[in-house]
Amino acid sequence: MEELRNLTNREFYSILSKPDNEFEDFIIKLNILPKKTQICVCGGKMNLRQRGTRGVTYRCTSKNCRKERGRKKNSFFEGSNLCYKDIFELSYLWSHNQASMENVTRCLRKSDGSEPSTKTVVDWKNFFRDICKIYFDKHPIVIGGPGIEVQIDETVVTKRKYHRGRMPATEWWFFGGIEPSSGRAFMLPVQARNRDTLFPLIRRHIAPGSIISSDGWAAYATLGELPEGYVHKTVIHSENFVDPVTGTHTQSIESVWQKFKERHKHEYGTARTLMEQYMIEFLWRREFKEDPFYHLWNQICQKYNFNNNEEDE
Ligand SMILES: [Zn+2]
C-alpha cells in the first residue's frame, strides 16, 4: 500500500494511464484485487478465463472439478459494473472531496460518450462512507493525553421540514470534542445530555490525563473526579468567551460545529441515517486530511482481507 502514500495528482494519473493489464497487476500487488490464480476448494489450481457476458472468472483446472468463481468475489470491487480504473479514480476524487456528480461525470466519461449513472456514483460514495464507518467502529477516535487540552461541547442541529413556522422542527443533539493543538476531533449523536450519556463517551474518546474545557453545563460538574484523572476547566459562554482568569475557552469546538453545520445545511435533508453518515464522513475527512486516498485504500484492505503474497502450495 506504500505505493499510494502522498501521491501527487500527476502520479495518480500516471498510474491510471497504465495499460489495463499492468494496472490490474498493480492493484493485485496492493492486495486490492485477488491474484490471477487461486486454489480451488478441491485443492486444484484455478485460472482466469474470459466467460462472455459474465466477464472474467476463475475456473478450476482439475478435470473432475471445473468449479468456477467470480473474479472479484470477496473484493471491494465485487458486484460492480464499473471497471477497476473507474472505481479507482472515483475513490481518488471522493477522498479529495471532488466527487460532485458534475466532476465525476466529466472525469469518467469515455470517448464514446458513455458515463456512469447517477445511481452508480451515489452507491460508490456510500460504499466509501461505509468504509469510514467500519474503520471508526473498530478504531474510535481518541484525542488528548496527559497535559493536552481538549475542548468539549454539545450542539443542536435543527431542520424545519416544510419551511413552515408551525411545524415542529426536527432536532438532533451532538456531543463532541477537539484537541486544538492538532485539530483532531470526535463527535457523536446523543439522545440526552445527562452525565450517564456523556461520561462514557468522554472516557471512550478522551485519553486519561487530558485537560478538558467545557461550558458550565451541570452534567460536567464531576468530570474531574473520574478515574482517568482529567483536569476540568469551565468557561461560562454567556459571560466571557475567553475566561480572563484561566484563559480557558471553547472556540475551537465552536468552529468545528460551525463547519459541520455549514455544509450540512446545503447538502443534506432531515433523515437521521443521512445525518449520521454525513457526520462520519465529516470526521473521517478531518482525521485523514493529510493523505485521504492512501488511508481510504488502506482501510479497504483491512476489511477485504486476502493476502496475495502467500505462496501457493
Ligand atoms: Zn476444483
TrEMBL record:
Transmembrane segments: none annotated. InterPro entries: IS1016-like_transposase, Tnp_ISXO2-like. It holds the Pfam family DDE_Tnp_IS1595. Residues 142-287 form the ISXO2-like transposase domain. This is ISXO2-like transposase domain-containing protein. It comes from Panagrolaimus davidi.
